[in-house]
Amino acid sequence: MQQLTNAEEQVMEHLWKLEKAFMKDLLEAYPKPKPATTTIATLLKRMIDKQFVAYNEFGNSREYYPLVKKTDYFSKHVNGLISNFFNNSASQFASFFTTETNLSQTELEDLKKIIDSEILKKKK
């Protein structure tokens, strides 16, 4: 899977939220100052070429939709991050993540619940 630029990721975020969208829907999703229509069109063309986005045509209008799930995209990046920066060690990554991101006690407890739940699933 190729990587998206930051600008392309922003478009994808809107598409993941909207599930499918015409150009006007995408532009509406942006805060002001909104990007130019030509900018979004260029980004969408690149994302179609990279096979992240496809579209259905309705007359002169295109309704865009994501071809890649958000979870698939980000899990690939997190796994790459663990591989490249933490010697392929998920525990090194978890240690860094929990100590360097200023998580609150509640957030840490929530993480612990998620981890405990995954441990139980693996035992079955």
Folded structure, characterized:
- This protein has helices spanning 6-18, 23-29, 37-49, 70-85, 90-100, 105-123, and strands at residues 53-58, 61-66.
- With 124 residues, it is mainly alpha-helical.
- The chain has two domains: 6-66, Arc Repressor Mutant, subunit A; 70-123.
- The longest helix has 19 residues, at 105-123.
- It is elongated.
- The model has no long low-confidence stretch (mean pLDDT 90).
- Keywords: DNA-binding, Transcription, Transcription regulation.
- One of its GO terms (biological process) is negative regulation of DNA-templated transcription.
- This is Putative transcriptional regulator.
- One of its GO terms (molecular function) is DNA binding.
Summarize the structure.
With 124 residues, this protein is mainly α. The chain is built from six helices and two strands, in the order H-H-H-E-E-H-H-H.
Structural class: mainly alpha
Give the % helix. 55-70%
Shape: elongated
Q: How many strand elements?
A: 2
Strand arrangement, largest sheet?
1-2
Low-confidence stretches: none
> What's the number of structural domains?
2
From the N-terminal CA to the C-terminal CA, the straight-line distance is 32 Å
GO molecular function, one term: DNA binding
GO biological process, one term: negative regulation of DNA-templated transcription
Family: Belongs to the BlaI transcriptional regulatory family.
Keywords: DNA-binding, Transcription, Transcription regulation
